[in-house]
Design brief:
alpha/beta, 4 helices, 33% strand
Length: 142
């Protein structure tokens, strides 16, 4: 199934901040609202910000595999990650610099936009991150 546009909802969870951390992502068809994929990626001991980046990267990676020629709209409740990936804020922390570099390499010339959303509008991605923590393993459900 080919898609012209996908939405990625991404989040991170850290139990301790820093502590046991995971990123989560949900990929949606924006026309129907259908969940096309769900994933959680364990980050080891990390900050919530690192987990947010990891969830975003996982979501973009899945979306690009589903729509290699399509555009992607990323929705996150992390203003820090949204502003950094949009180029409006500097990235000072070395771990986040590395993750942002990895994300930009993954994005390449693809059309990817970023939007901040309130935490309550990001429950699916939060649940995906917490599911990885609860399971004690990364997962992808396509």
């Amino acid at each position: 199934m080919s898609h012209e546009r996908l939405v990625v909802e991404a989040d991170g969870a850290s139990r301790g901040n820093p502590g046991a951390a995971a990123g989560g992502a949900v990929v949606l068809n924006p026309e129907t609202g259908e969940v096309l994929a769900r994933a959680g990626v364990l980050c080891g001991e990390a900050s919530n910000n690192v987990a947010e980046y990891r969830g975003m990267i996982e979501g973009i990676d899945i979306a690009l595999s589903l729509a290699p020629e399509g555009s992607i709209h990323v929705r996150m409740d992390s203003k820090l990650v949204v502003e950094q990936m949009s180029g409006r804020w500097k990235i000072k922390h070395p771990d986040m610099q590395d993750l942002a570099h990895r994300a930009r390499e993954l994005i390449g010339s693809h059309r990817v936009t970023f939007e901040w959303v309130p935490r309550e509008d990001n429950a699916r991605a939060d649940a995906a991150a917490n599911m990885a923590l609860d399971r004690g393993e990364s997962y992808r459900e396509l």
